[in-house]
Amino acid sequence: MYFTVEGQMGSSVIDPANCRAIAMVGKDADITDVKVTSLKLGPRGLSTYSVDYSCMKDFSHGVSVDVTAFDLTQTWTLFVE
Hints:
By secondary structure, the protein is mainly beta. It has no helices and seven strands.
């Protein structure tokens, strides 16, 4: 599992138990205009996402995305801090 953004500092925190992922950026970064560079929250090639990660930009309140694989859907919340 991974979630990375442009300008990221360090590794993302992935919390599968609570369906949360957090990427850290510098203190001067504009979290309303973030470019997601990669996202995988389910099995590769089998997961579908309710939102294409190229469309995610504003992380000021987190971004929710439904991830579906094997007829199971989980709602993940992605944060940039």
